Write the structure tokens for this entry.
Amino acid sequence: MTNIFKRSVKDHWYVKYQQVGFPSIQKGWILPVDRWVDFDPFILMAEDWFKRGTFPDHPHRGFQTVTYVVDGRLEHIDNAGGRDILEPGDVQYMNAGWAARHAEEGVEDDIAHTLQLWLNLPKHLRNTETTYQTVYSEEAPIVNVEGGTVKVFSGDIAGVKGPMESLVPITLSEISLSAGATYIHKLPENHNAFLYVLSGDMDFGETGVNLKKHGVGTLTFEEDGTEANSSELVIKANSRRSKVLVYSGVPIKEPIVPYGPFVMNTMEEIKQAYRDYHDGKFGPPAI
């Protein structure tokens, strides 16, 4: 019988926030962009509080986004005619591919509070078709575990499959536990993974690293492992209403250049993306 890899917390920190100019209100980096090599296939993750007018029409190319709404309402508008309103607990997936142009706005007087993850694309998928998918909270399957629940947005987790379909397969789970509950979260052993505590007080991994709200932890993994082999992350809640998001994916292992709203493999490709945008190749504005 194969020994199951037991995950530990490799590194951990708390998000630091800064106030920014209105209509944006506050911003923090859950995953800072300068450590994308450590986070591969993830590039960065931002936590934002903002009102309407902060993220009007803008372009993207070469990566994917996964946006989780913590509070408030978020309106998505894209220049292909898409329009939707997301509420707390909803997730939106975007494959920017070769040319996305969209807007992300607070609704009416709401303060939108969101977590946006940038997910890399391998070089051969950077020019794919732009697509969007909304996963409403109630569409994500929920698995009852002792002392809590596991909601699965993406990937095969806890015996169910999440509805989100990303070009680069990842897992995304929202785990809610009551005080004293322990849950063993299983992930493919070759997935690089991180977690973000939304509320409460929890211990993680073999060494029981403690993290509270706004805490981030990266996890050990088997870089030369296989998708077929499972690994285990022990999670113990120390307070009621403890909730954590766990993300995982297989590293792509390609050099990238994240610059402005684009992620490419070289600076020349970044310059070409700007030229294409200014030449109108991204299409009309998203309004």
Remarks:
- Residues 8-249 form a domain with the Jelly Rolls fold (CATH 2.60.120.10).
- The helical segments are 36-39, 267-278.
- Residues 1 and 229 are 11 Å apart (CA to CA).
